[in-house]
Fold this protein.
Amino acid sequence: MAAAAAVASVDLLYAGVATAVGPWITTALTGVEAWVRLVSAMVLGVIACLGLRASRRPRALGTSPGDGRAVPGTARHTDPTPEGVPVQDDRGALGRIFLRFAALTLINPTTALYFVALTTAQGAELSGGTAGLVFVGAVFLASLLWQQTLVLVSAALGSRLPDSARIWTFRIGFALVAAYAVKVALPLPTL
């Protein structure tokens, strides 16, 4: 659960920064909102396309390219004590897990781009203080619940989940991002 809390904390940070900066950028670009939405939609579309393309490669499943060996730290790795699930209440281990997953999420440019694209596209709706706070709080809660669900489902299913199911979960998730990109882009800007 430390890993889930770390990812949710970084999502909170990125959502807060993007919410503070996104509406300011939108205000600076007044008159070209449709173009801003289109660019945001294109960023989301690229994220979706890259994710869908990656779901076709063995590495997306947690295996080494070419040899099918499991990569430590992924769902395919069958260590008797999986990373993120300490055997005892070792606060030092929990802290290291939190810091590792926070650092990995912080350096992931997709996370930052995703929040900037969302908040820039929805700038007018997030320009009020209350709306921005609600958005950031909702991002944190949704992220924490989602990450904890992933941890619990992974622990329960682990290696029992067939590769094809894993592939389809990647594809469905990135297809949802693509659908949201279309929603953000419409209506298209006029020339």
